[in-house]
Sequence to fold (348 residues):
Amino acid sequence: MSELKKITIKRPDDWHLHLRDGEVLNTVLPYSSRDYGRGIIMPNLVPPLKKMAEIIAYKDRILAALPAGHQFKPLMTAYLSDDTSADEIISGYQNGILSAVKLYPAHATTNSAHGVSSIQSVLPVLEAMQKQGVPLLIHGEVTDPAIDVFDREARFIDTILLPLMKALPELKVVLEHVTTQDAAALILEGPHNLAATVTPQHIFLNRNALFQGGLRPHNYCLPILKKENHRNSLTKAVTSGCDRFFLGTDSAPHPKNSKESACGCAGAFNALTALSLYAQVFEQENALDKLEAFTSINGPKFYQLPVNTDSITLIKQQYIVPNFIMTADDREIVPFLAGETLNWSILR
Ligand code: NCD
Ligand code: ZN
Fold:
């Protein structure tokens, strides 16, 4: 029998992760902390995390939920809103509480009602962040209901991101979960201080997957999946070796009944499947030699942190995604691609 194909990479980090709180946190965290060294933890709890005391308390709850032996380090973010104080952000960053600040345009996505109403209203905070080198993580979609949902990222780049970068050319920016050829081109051509995270779903699926044989709520996330030409351009850019793309799963668990509903929540719980899917896409593109930079090196470089010292091994062995997982308080969570068979597993 021939040996199964294997690839060993430095332990990855997840630069965009939703862990939620309470029993959901306890249930989902181990699926990230077993494989990843660090995670940039999203602050869109209810209510959102804006104050340093709340952020420290949430970090403590994450650390308390870690299984014995897992070395995972949560890197915390603050939720930017019109009333955010520049002084609090800068001192939070200097004291090592914060790794970055997250900008949600108000009403762009799940739990973003308290987001930013306009760049103008947070300009003093962004100026202070530029001066201190604090990364700004952006959910890059306009929220005008008159703009087609498939065009909201491209419109955001033109009308908000480019003017912002002109006004604050040294601000460190991560455009989160990019989905379009417009974003891909911007990053490829862009300055050193502009990077992007890429989810597995946006390079693995196109928007047909939302409607395959019926409505597919577990493939619904924001930004929404795009047409094949966008998926393809993005995949080519990410597998090109450009060091300003890095792994951010946007793993975003919701209880099954909130997804399978007349008004289902946006978010794909991909913590179980993300690494297998990235490997599958990089392999399809003949770019497995570029996988480690994307998963484990480009992110720390951008955040000026050391690369993890230990490694994980991916093996080309089928992985059957579970149909569901249960929280201790009996809520069902359906993983992204539940029931499907993927080509790569993690050797544990
Ligand atoms: C995220 C969530 O559920 O918190 N949902 C999503 O579709 N990605 C929010 C976000 O990152 O936009
Ligand atoms: Zn997210």
